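Data card: per-record layout.
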Amino acid sequence: MQQFELSRYFSNCLDDTTRTAEQTVLEYIHVFSKWSKDCHYFVKDVRNKVKHGDCIDELNRNGAWKILLAIRKKYCPSKNRQYSRCDCGHYYIGGANKAFAKIDKIENIDKKSCIIYTKPNKEKKLKVFKFILRKVGKIWKISEMYSFHCHYKWYEESL
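The structure for this 159-residue chain is written out next.
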């Protein structure tokens, strides 16, 4: 049996065409955080069983990479991402797993695009995130994601 099953991540998701921009961001944070934690615990479990460099290969063999691609397909528009998260070492680290799943502010740019900011959570050391969404057909997709760092700058995060 594979460690990573699609149903584990998408079982409580709304239909893509009825999901609002806010619901898209909250669902993405929830799904990505769950996946990232599963990857972390999987690597922790296999670390003593395989060589250090083989942990990522074990993740891929058990379906983690396929889940990330499914998450991208559901929540992000098609885009060439050859040098992003999937192509680096521990690709499950970083990203939206450091986002607090509470919406702070929404800025509507036009009918088909908006910016959504999350609230910070200082207790859990979760950052403020900015999600730029665009409507692709009838579906809201996250086109860009930024996190706010201590140097008072927005830094682009990989989707």
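Known properties of this structure: The two ends are 28 Å apart (CA to CA). Residues 21-46 form the longest helix (26 residues).

See the next section for split statistics.
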